[in-house]
Amino acid sequence: MNVMHMAFLYVYIENLTMGNLETFHEIAEREGPASLVTDICAGGSCPWDSNTYTLVPGDNSEMPLTIEPHLLPEYGGQHILYRITVGEGENLENSITVYVKVNVSTTSGINRVVNHNAVKVYPNPTRGKVTVGNQQYDLSGRAAGVYYLPVEGGSARVIKL
Description:
Largest sheet: 4 strands, antiparallel
Radius of gyration: 17 Å
Helix content: under 10%
Strand content: over 45%
Order of helices and strands: EEEEEEEEEEEEE
Number of helices: 0
């Protein structure tokens, strides 16, 4: 039996224009284990099935671009390098490229009990509005799927029917 570990890398993109901006993305694993499986989530959709992402003006911290490498114990001591390019239009005009490096630990985890406060997420699954902690989100205009919504210190998984 293999124990699978996951990492969540959140990339927040800010739209500094006055209107909605349709961006195009390219995410590529440049280095890392050949058998690595990575899920990409964006705009609240997981898995992300497109290379476009519409950003509203200002801070887009509620809908990050998320890279989720599925880590196996045999990857310990290795690293993964992702190249993320975001730009306008299919030609990626005015693009910016960021490299993100993930170092995979050789330890099996934390050897002590970790106390954390549970975050209430309800209703889950939902057809519209959902409350995550003290924040309410309206998913009624979005497609059915799995959404990762921000919560202090991480994210909460919500299923939209």
